[in-house]
Amino acid sequence: MSLKQKQQLTIQQKLSPQQIQMIRLLELPAMQLEQRVKQEIEENIVLEEEPKREEGTEPGENGEEPQRVSVDEYLRDDDTPIYKLRVNNLSKDDKPQHQTMLVHGRSLPDFLVEQLSFRHLSEHQMELAKYLVGSIEEDGYLRRDLDSIADDIAFTRGIEVSPDDLEDLLAIIQELEPIGVGARNLQECLLIQMEHQSIDTPARQLAHKILTSHFDDFVKKHYEKLINRLRVTEDEFRDAIEEIKRLSPKPGNLHSEGDSDMTPYIVPDFILDYHDGHFDLSLNKYNIPEVRINQRYVDMMRSMVTPDGRVKEENKEAIQFVKGKIDSAKWFISAIKQRHDTLMRTMRTILDYQEEYFKDGNMSKLRPMILKDIAERTGLDVSTISRVVNSKYVQTHFGIILLKTLFSEAMQTESGEEVSSYEIKNILQECISEEDKHHPLTDETLMEILNDKGYRIARRTVAKYREIMNIPVARLRKTL
What range defines the domain where residue 445 resides? Predict the structure, then answer.
């Protein structure tokens, strides 16, 4: 075969560095945007934080020089290759994101390892125990089987260990605080906690028997069946259930020292005030610093350019470096401004669409709204609207609202009127909260109630909304 060369013209759609930068910033909520801006200031020497101005003053007052920067003014005839001026704005697939994690206190694994240090374990046992602790998930469960963990230890550490040896070490870990940690399933977790107590009362003895021998029926809430099988009274059975309810199904949550993202702190992205029938919408700038290009570097570039606009040979490398940084800074400042405009444009459209709801926060006044509705009104793409509303909050006079919760499907009544699916969910919530817990309402019954109210809805739709609201089936809602 002979090698041949040929030219081929192709069209490819690629995102520019500016577009990638804009998409990344658009996704960030207020708190993360603050970190991103500060990170950019640290990485780009040309960027600096703009001094805060007093309210009512304009740029140029208080001795501040308004920012007017045009790199092209200083480099009109520069012959620097264009590829050297590109900034390193790569996509997420090309460059991993660097995140700063702020963690306070000890994590659950650190807490467990600290307790293991007080046990009389050999160096070999301690290494294996640490590996086991590292396999325990945040909620305190060990969901991997010991055979797989033994294979991993042999492969990664070169240590041959049997599952029986790991079982012995796991028994030691299960004695540590919080009680129940290291359990492989819910039954084992509850039994560990139960056996750690003194089983000295009839209620605890019955509870232990239920967890040991009748766990499946207990989980499925076959209470009447259990009462007959155990030959106990309803009061005795109720006391045993109360003992089980005092146990924690997620022991890892009992450890609170190592919380970082476990307790989120919400900062609203928008602030919406309502006074005398008028809305006042603003973007919450939180602690986000305003940035500008440092004039010192612009002056330095100006000094490196000859009066006729040429760049001296010895200054080319320095000037191309500064020019690249200034280009990057200009793009970043432009992206921040574009983010501000896009967010405000989208939020104003949502406000116009859901004006009646924002007056008093009555969920029944929410109109059916999907991303496409806002995209058509703003002229933006659906993916852009999705990025705007994702993880963004608005502070109103009736509380802080997650924007994503304002979007809902449309349902039709018998009269042909479109209502929000939130209205259906509210009715379901009311019916279930008012039901007789001894005889809870089935999905079929809930469907009939909604149909009687004029909402055309199928049983499978009732089941879907119930699952969305994390409401169990009727059998699991039944109480004694």
Answer: 410-477
